[in-house]
Amino acid sequence: MKTVLIAPRPLDVLELPADLDGREGTNRSNGHAQIAASDDLNAVRAWLARVADKQTTFENYRKEAERLLLWAIVQLGKPLSSLTHEDLQLFREFLKDPQPRSRWVAEGGRKFPRHDPRWRPFYGELAASSQRQAMVIINALFAWLVEAGYLAGNPLSLSRQRTRRTKPRVTRYLDRELWQEVKLHIDSLPKDTPRERERYLRARWLFTLFYLGGLRISEVSGNTMGCFFCRRDADGHERWWLEVLGKGDKEGLVPASAEMMVELGRYRRERGLPALPSRHEDTPLVLPLGKSMKPLTRAALHTIVKGIFAGAAGRLRLRGDGFTGQADLLDHASAHWLRHTAGSHMADGGTDLRTVRDNLRHASLTSTNPYLHTPDEQRHRETEEKHRVDW
Where is the composition biased (Basic and acidic residues) (predicted)? Predict the structure, then answer.
């Protein structure tokens, strides 16, 4: 009798019945496999093990592979290694609207811990860009399993048609008016008690770091204050920089403007530290409230940022129905929106696009000549002159 699972479970604890584990999958290769996995679950785990040392990549890959595997066994009652081209077209449609919602989407759009029984593979609707990214990752999974000799073919390869792309346009950012509302909300936070003042200055420093530095949330959680350093330029001026280990373990150099260093000093003094950090100091860029000196996790930083956006949205709603649209936009905003906001405001403010590219540590300006760089000293001067937070 064919087994059909009725509830999605995380890959960590998932156990597949014999007729759904893929040992007899119709797309299994008959040749010599390069991996030891004999079933779909272990094949997926072998694929994920390649990126286990890169937390963000691992979590993104696991999320998409998990959704596909669970959809195949729960929704279709079919092992991953038996999926066809037609099945993947159905899955593409499923990503647009996962149904039944109670089975696939977490209540209230919350991201519950993986061990929580309320955990679900989805915790909200996927944007079109997220749907496309999911299929890109799944295609990479299938391609690797074919290369490893586990699968006979990639069912997605039949649908990979190169379509003409429209010019990319950043939409997930805050215009200057909405950014001003966020700053006003932060400045309105209570400051009467030492703990309230610490919370206020931490929020102010965190948003300064995101906006002036254009940092990713993983870069905030993964780097330290010892990454700041000072050097003299050709004219004898001392300039501060932030050395960042970022996406793909690439090192980047972020101009630390005088404005950023003032905010850093204010935050450090509140924590009982000298205003300026020493080289290679291991103090995290952002700290928990209280005496702890441990780094905040990405999840904790995400919670702080979402809380600030929610507070700013609440202030806007108090002004009446005419501000509902702006408030709704803030409810959807995340830390990465601040990175897009920084880039957009720099470009709108007349900053050279090469400076914007280098500040955000992008590889190119939509594949612009990779050898085109602005000198670091010029980049620092232009950033300081044209990109300000102005608390």
Answer: 374-391
* pLDDT tens-place string over residues 226-239: 999 999 877 788 89
pLDDT of the residue at 372? 35
Instruction: From the options 3.40.50.11540, 3.40.50.300, 1.10.443.10, 3.40.50.1220, give the CATH code of 176-386.
Output: 1.10.443.10
- For residue 309, what pLDDT band results from cuts at 50, 70 and 90? very high
Q: Where are the beta strands (DSSP E) in 3-127?
A: none
| CA triple 189-195-201, angle to 5 deg | 50
Residue 147: both structure tokens together: 């290369």
Which of 89-93, 119-123, 177-181, 292-296 shows the lowest mean pLDDT across its residues? 119-123
Residue ranges covered by each domain of the chain: 18-159, 176-386
Laid out side by side, the sheet with 251-256 consists of 228-232, 238-245, 251-256
Would you state the structure tokens that stand for residue 185, as one six-digit string?
A: 């909300």
**How is the chain split among helix, strand and coil, in percent rounded to 5?**
50, 5, 40
Length of the chain counted residue by residue: 391
- Torsion-angle region of 98 (φ positive above 0: left; ψ -120 to 50: alpha; else: beta): beta
| Contact call for residues 81 and 69 (beta carbons, < 8 A) | no
Q: Given this model, what pLDDT does residue 364 score?
A: 58
Phi/psi at 251 (nearest 5 deg)? -85, 140
Q: How far is CA 126 from the centre of its chain?
A: 14
User: Which of 3-7, 121-125, 249-253 shows the lowest per-residue confidence on average (mean pLDDT)?
Assistant: 3-7
Integer Cα distance of 218 and 220 in angstroms: 5
Find the farthest-apart pair of alpha carbons in the chain and give their distance in angstroms, rounded. Answer: 80
End-to-end CA distance of the chain: 67
* CB hemisphere CA count around 13 (13 angstroms): 9
What DSSP assignment string belongs to 98-111?
Answer: -SSHHHHB-GGG--
Mean pLDDT, the chain, as a whole number? 87
Note the pLDDT of residue 18. 83
